[in-house]
Amino acid sequence: MPKKRRPLSELEQTADFISRHIGPDESQKRQMLRALNLPSMDALIQRAVPDSVRSRGGLPLASTHTEKDALDYIRKISSENDLKKSLIGLGYHNTVTPAVLRRRVLENPGWYTAYTPYQPEIAQGRLEGLVNFQQMIMDLTGMELANASLLDEGTAAAEAMTLIRRQTKKKQSQRFLVADDVHPQTIAVMRTRARPLGITVEVDEPRNFGDKDAFGVLVQYPGTYGDVEDHSEVVKKIHDNGGLVAVASDPLALTLLTPPGEWGADVVVGNSQRFGVPMGYGGPHAAFFATHEKYKRSVPGRIIGVSVDVNGNPAMRMALQTREQHIRREKATSNICTAQTLLANMAAFYACWHGPEGLTTIATRVHRLTGILATGLEQLGFELANHTFFDTLTINAGDEAEAILYRARDRGFNLRLIDSERIGVALDETVERYEIEELWRAFAGRNEIGMRAAEMDAVASDGIPNRLKRTSAFLTHEVFNSYHTETEMLRYLHRLARRDIALDRSMIPLGSCTMKLNAASEMEPISWPRFASLHPFVPREQARGYMRMIRELETMLARLTGFHSVTMQPNSGAQGEYTGLLMIRAYHESRGEAHRDVVLIPTSAHGTNPASAKMAGCEVQLVDCAENGDVDLDDLKAKAEKHSSRLAGLMITYPSTHGVFEQAISEICELIHSHGGQVYMDGANLNALLGVAYPAEFGADVCHFNLHKTFCIPHGGGGPGVGPVGAAKHLAPYMPGHPFEPSVGGEDAIGPVTATPWGSAGILPISWMYITLMGAEGLQQATETAILNANYLAKRLSEGYPILYTGDTGFVAHECIVDTRVLQDEAGITADDVAKRLIDYGFHAPTMSWPVPGTFMIEPTESENKAEIDRFCDAMLRIREEARKVASGEWPRDDNPLVNAPHTEAGVTADTWPHPYSRRVAAYPDPSLKADNYFPPVARVDNAYGDKHLVCSCPPVEAYRDAAE
Ligand SMILES: *Cc1c(COP(=O)(O)O)cnc(C)c1O
User: In this predicted structure, what is the pLDDT of residue 817?
Assistant: First the structure.
């Protein structure tokens, strides 16, 4: 870690990052404090943050001053990563990210700073990208329905297992069979997930499957050792027995292989990483999940569907949201909230860029080179373990195996050492013919091999059995056949990005989501090959830079929160919750109290909390909230008492989702401990605590941090995320392990929750950069400014709306709940109308109707300055005035700018204008917007229509226009 801060030099002052990250300058802060009648920031913090949680000590954190210094430093760290060509396979492959996608998507804030598309009118661009992704997956797998991504292949396989359990007719069986040639890390994640649900995962050869009683099976195609096997017999037997079949597959292989949907698969999962997404030492990448249409209500994660807007024009939005944890809570089908939207979009654009022919060419070339490699190895006297293959060979190398591995390493390649006698080699689109020759030399152990790869096309063996050669067409839609030149692609990407509101346009005041600045300098390192191009299973000595960066980040997070240890493995906040709960259960089990399985959760909790608790095998008991928004202490006491002997713990968000610091938090933690329970803190609101209070100090035992909220990893339009877990000393032994990495996890580690040891390691440099640039001083300033901004915003909005829950002292934390129900009472104007009208003002709506129905939860973050907050407040107060005009009868209740919002450009420029308000009022409600006004591409989207007529693919536009008529 860099050294402690020195006094700033003159030059450093001009380049100091803290003042670039924090929106308001000193004079704006003073103005806001004055508006709150407060003399100083200290006075505000004293009133907003209860004395009992406020920390006295400073933070022992080092930092740099400038972006240049931090980048120099992390570049040095990255240089400790040794970049070899990894042909390890195991589901991770080298890929060429088309430069146009790297610059225009991965490195473009229009794409990476957007939020999950809850407001479809301002998200049509990324929604189209996701529909492309779904279509691509449906085509490649041969299935009817695909979702818009999952976290990784391991968890996708686990989700397949649980979907099958929900859908199977064989309810009495608890056994799930997994083929012995499924990637080992996938099996390990499935075992972790199966255990708390009482499912037994049994690994065996698929040919034995038919004789066993099981509710479902998972096979892999091609297998982890490379074989391309015909599983249709297995499928038939399983189906005859009443079970269902999941298949893990590879999207590039499926351009050449008969898709699993054509031989009877019920679910197909996999990873789309090799479609242009860097390996990043483990992630993030978009996993996929495809199944039959009849299971649509049971599919985990999000499905994007095509609906219509009020004018009957096609419009996309998240379909079937009634399945989600937000609504179904402990009855949800999964706890997925943040997924992998940015990476799903990347993979889909890679398919658009290459088109079906380009992808087939890439796959054919990879397969041919594999055939050449195979033929050459046989000529050199090596025995191949597999005779069918797409891109992967397993070589029986006897006692030469290890020597070959090291010789290959000397020539710059990482191969897979399967066991002491077998070597695996997986080729990819980056491999050249001369590299095949290098591999032969490594195997032969000499330079002279007497073969030229360039001359072997004719004798290369074909690894795909005839009956498994793909005959069906795929990616025939226009979108996959139109953007093959850079000019066309550039414009397509720009066209889509222009349709959306991301942070590059205006503030996104989504409460609980912390949409703060994602600084360019923080983003830069993730594109460097020494971070981006490492395979997750390279030998540790090649990843020294990663090890150092990860260790440092763990230490920083531990110091910031007071916890003993931190794991980076969970790749979302919800995944962190799940991890923490499993650790709590393991702790109880170690003390002979495995029966402790009741988790108390306040009703104000995020929907992922109860969903995660269910996945961890717990029973959820809800605890009421009091009038003032705090946890109802009497109800908590009663429930803790009632379930005392079975109490596993409490899940509590702090500060609460009501936007206040509860006074009683320490007392609450003590109460739970006195009943033998553990306290899980949902750390999504950590942006209100850093440098001001330590969760470990006021009694939390384990907590997740959303690096994609507080620590500046961008939301990517709905992922990626990272949800590290911090734990007190007594829970540290249960930190999740990994089968390939003994150094990961505690001594009594729970199984892996993610397919790779450090989850989405590739984006950890973002948070490392943020903390390093801010240091203790900057982070404390950020927290204080976030609290100031929220209180100033609450104060201004209180002129027009009631502010719910303001703590004992009349102050909120870093977000506030604004009650829009007054408009409903007065004028029949709903929260939805206000949200859509905000679009006309150029804003993304705040978090809606959660945790209180009919309200907005607003979080400005520290990155927005006073001018932007004022602009937002002005819009909200103008909307208040507009509602008054409806209430007074000046505008009819069914025809006014609120119920008709958002207004499209086509609408306000139409030849006729039938409304009782002017076009100017519709289009330019804030006159200052004129030059930069945003128009959504569609009018208000009809959610119900789309759910009734579910379409999740890309039909030609005309097809659904007709449907609406
Ligand atoms: C965002 C959030 C979560 C879930 O985090 P993901 O990373 O989206 O899985 C959980 N709880 C709260 C309070 C949140 O705001």
Answer: 96
Contact (CB, 8 A) for 844 and 119: yes
Domain carrying residue 485: 89-501
Whole-number Å distance, alpha carbon 337 to ligand 1 midpoint, is 7
Phi, psi torsion values for 269, nearest 5 degrees: -125, 165
Name the DSSP letter for residue 574.
Answer: H
Mutation pick for ligand 1 pocket among 325, 336, 338 (CB with most ligand atoms within 8 Å): 338
- Distance in angstroms between the alpha carbons of the first and the last residue of the chain: 63
3-state helix, strand, coil in the chain (%, to 5): 45, 15, 45
C-beta of 337 in contact with ligand 1 (< 6 A): yes
Average pLDDT, the chain: 95
CA of 621 to the centre of ligand 1 (A): 20
Q: Is residue 439, in this structure, part of any structural domain at all? A: yes
CA distances in angstroms from 869 to 40, 51, 337, 514, 795, listed in the order given: 20, 28, 28, 15, 12
Bridge-based pairing of strands 175-179 and 200-204 is parallel
Question: Which pTM value belongs to this model?
Answer: 0.97
CA distance 134 to 163: 18
Cβ proximity of 687 and 861 under 8 Å: yes
Are 450 and 599 contained in the same domain? no
> In the structure, what pLDDT confidence band is assigned to residue 962 with cuts at 50, 70 and 90?
low
Domain end call among 761, 780, 795: 761
Based on the domain organization, do 474 and 554 belong to the same domain? no
As separate numbers, helices (DSSP H) first and strands (DSSP E) second, the chain gives 31, 27
Clarify whether residues 413 and 552 are in a common domain: no
| 497 lies in the same domain as 534 | no
In a domain? residue 594: yes
The per-residue pLDDT for range 794-836, each reduced to its tens digit, is: 999 999 999 999 888 899 999 999 999 999 999 999 999 999 9
579 lines ligand 1 (CB under 6 A): no
- The residue whose CA is least distant from atom 3 of ligand 1 is 573
Residue range 355-408, pLDDT digits in tens: 999 999 999 999 999 999 999 999 999 999 999 999 999 999 999 999 999 999
Any atom of ligand 1 within 6 Å of the Cβ of 706:
yes
